[in-house]
Write a structure and sequence with these properties.
about 325 residues, mainly alpha, about 80% helix
């Protein structure tokens, strides 16, 4: 026990030194690792061949349990005090938002093209900007609202040609885009709350939200459909990709600006569809790629402009 305490103290000491010396670099590193781990998620979802509800069940329950284990292992001091932050109204909002975006993302990927859903999810910085205007009095200015309009045009282009993607599910592109937009709003709300309420423990909040979405998924599943998946896909999604990536992503805004995190998260929209294209041959049309490029360029330009050239920095 004594050796274990010494090891934990040494780990925390090293961790604190890194944070104090390079806080922004550390936050950027967390976001980058989180996104890179997350990018193959949609490909593994396709490989699982599960229906939407059991897929949601496995992803939610395994992610929730693993996130709680990660949190307990890494943040072993004052856990009771930190857990109590979940009982506050900001904690409840974060739990609900993570539960909703876990549900809608799974429904969206099962409904239509991965490219379409990820394009809609990439609008998260737009929702974050709108929420920041109301919750943190961060003025967006004319450039911010022009960014919102241009990004929505890009999403509309992707949706308009959504039926022409090759090997996609035969669902509704409009419904899939709506699911993606709800997911983007849920993530933006969670990240904004994490920025505004620094004492809120977002990792266990995300874990509880994921568990709720998993319970919902299993509740709507038929008994024979739950175990119709290769074990490696369920394990990879629920124990590796989701908990590891979100543990990094929801912690990153504590150490760097949300603008940097949002910019890095655009990598998922770029890399994710290529994983699916390479893995199962699901290919977006050229028009969809064009619309997606509009969204990436517009949002990336806006984030860089506000991050490096605006006097009003994101906090």
């Amino acid at each position: 026990m004594a050796d274990q305490r010494i090891a934990k103290s040494s780990t925390m000491y090293l961790f604190d030194r890194i944070l104090k010396k390079y806080p922004k670099s550390f936050g950027t590193f967390l976001a980058l690792i989180g996104v890179l781990v997350l990018t193959p998620d949609t490909m593994v979802m396709r490989f699982s061949n599960l229906d939407r509800w059991p897929l949601m069940g496995w992803r939610g329950v395994l992610m929730g349990v693993t996130l709680l284990i990660i949190w307990r292992f890494l943040f072993f001091s004052n856990t009771k005090k930190k857990w109590r932050t979940l009982y506050t109204w900001p904690g409840i909002i974060v739990i609900i938002s993570f539960s909703i975006n876990s549900v809608t993302f799974t429904l969206g990927i099962q409904e239509t093209s991965v490219m379409l859903v990820l394009t809609a999810v990439a609008t998260m910085p737009i929702f974050a900007a709108i929420l920041s205007s109301f919750m943190m009095s961060e003025a967006q200015g004319m450039g911010g609202w022009l960014t919102i309009i241009a990004a929505m045009v890009g999403v509309a282009i992707v949706v308009s040609d959504g039926n022409n993607a090759i090997s996609q599910p035969e669902g509704s592109p409009v419904l899939g885009a709506a699911y993606g937009a709800i997911t983007a709003f849920g993530l933006a709300l969670a990240f904004t709350m994490a920025r505004k309420y620094r004492d809120l423990e977002v990792v266990p909040a995300a874990a509880v939200g994921a568990l709720i979405s998993g319970i919902i998924g299993f509740a709507f599943s038929t008994e024979g459909s739950i175990f119709n998946a290769p074990i490696w896909t369920v394990f990879t999604m629920g124990v590796v990709i989701l908990p590891v990536s979100f543990a990094f992503l929801i912690t990153a805004p504590r150490y760097t600006t949300s603008a940097i995190v949002s910019l890095i998260m655009l990598l998922e929209m770029v890399i994710g569809p290529f994983w699916v294209w390479f893995g199962i041959g699901e290919r977006p049309s050229m028009i969809m790629i064009f619309g997606g490029c509009i969204v990436i360029v517009v949002i990336a330009f806006h984030i860089i402009r506000t991050q490096f050239y605006s006097s009003k920095k994101y906090q």
